[in-house]
Amino acid sequence: MNENLKTSDLALELGRGLENSAEFTALMNKYKCAIMEVETKLNVLNAEFSLNYDRNPFESIETRLKSPESILEKMQRKGFELTLTSIEENLFDVAGIRVVCAFQEDIYKLAELLTKQDDIRLLRTKDYIKHPKDNGYRSLHLILEVPIFLADGKKYMKVEVQFRTIAMDFWASVDHKLRYKKVIENEEQIITKLKRCANVISRLDQEMQDIRNMIEKSEAESSV
Ligand code: GTP
Ligand code: MG
């Protein structure tokens, strides 16, 4: 099935709130623009850092637009009205960006530099690094609003940005893969082992950060 067909299926499901699927497509395009805006801001910060400090605060950025099926599934699961306005008001992760950093301190630095930009509105912060989830999941999640400029004016769009270290990303991708498997045996043991891995990874991130701090300190001392 191609993307347009899926989109029009959703439009049908959305029912009276939506006259035609062109409006849904237009909304998705706005989210795409919002993703581009935030991605550019992050790339600008990365470029500036490499120029001034000779290092990149992040290793990679991935972006994704939530699929019409996932949007519909989430709206129904949460019992939200199926209209475009309701999608915009209730879903915070239609536009998603994942930023993977080598070092934990760079996560906070980047998040700070991004959110202090005067066109960005910070709606919500979930710090699963300082407060990991029970299963061991760690990442910093921000819900932002970013303005996009259209022919008929300015519009703020919501974007979810997830910041992780490479090690946290490794853990989360393994956890994500296992999440869809049907566990019949040893479930408790698997949960315990995953959590233990998350703790090992957290210590690893701390050690890596310490190493970088030591190197930076020694560089600074040798240059005076
Ligand atoms: P969603 O309805 O799933 O978006 O959750 P939420 O609105 O409560 O937001 P939360 O910030 O907790 O999680 C949002 C996203 O973070 C998820 O869609 C995943 O991408 C990621 N995430 C959260 N918890 C976990 C986890 O335990 N494991 C993995 N692998 N990813 C997670
Ligand atoms: Mg989500």
Automatic annotation (TrEMBL):
Pathway: Purine metabolism; ppGpp biosynthesis; ppGpp from GTP: step 1/2. SUPFAM superfamilies: Nucleotidyltransferase. It comes from Sellimonas caecigallum. It holds the Pfam family RelA_SpoT. It comes from the Bacteria. Residues 63-186 form the RelA/SpoT domain. This is GTP pyrophosphokinase family protein. The lineage of its organism: Bacteria, Bacillati, Bacillota, Clostridia, Lachnospirales. InterPro entries: GTP_Pyrophosphokinase, NT_sf, RelA_SpoT.
